[in-house]
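Researcher: Next entry in the queue.
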Amino acid sequence: MSTFYLHPSAIVDQDAIIGNNTKIWHFTHVMAGAKIGNDCVLGQNVFVGKHVMIGNNVRVQNNVSVYEGVSLEDDVFVGPSAVFTNVINPRSAISRKDEFKKTTVQHGATIGANATIVCGITLGKFAFIAAGAVVTRDVADYVLVKGNPAKPSGWMSEYGQKLIFNSDHKAVCSKSGQAYSLENGIVLRIK
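Model: Structure for this entry, 191 residues:
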């Protein structure tokens, strides 16, 4: 039996699965069929749609709707008022529920406040989406994107620090000391 915190104003529909030590705050609604992992925090006024998969240790800040078709892997951070979509060409009078596009936010990625993630894309492992960015295409692992439309602007460590690569295509995180290499535009953590 899972033990989690549910604020009295929050609603978790029957058949939603909530992991241990997860906290669900004020005015949040988790729909039936959603699965939320252990040690997550869903802030105030969060909506989690049907069949949404949220991994372990995920933080979804206030005023975020995670619609059906979106999955958040372990250790993802979603900033306040970030926006996910699930239909490319919505119309009020036309039902397109059979056209939901899958959006995947991979392990350790960060989405800044007020960023918009257009559906049908993948945000790579430890990708970093700047506040206010509008992301319209896939983002590779460790890449920092910003702007509208979002464009690559550097690389970030797993610790969340900007990586500066030397002439040998190596970088070290200034906080963790973890080393990285840049090979053909792809960042790899050095074990």
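Model: The chain is about 0% helix and 35% strand.
Researcher: Noted, moving on.
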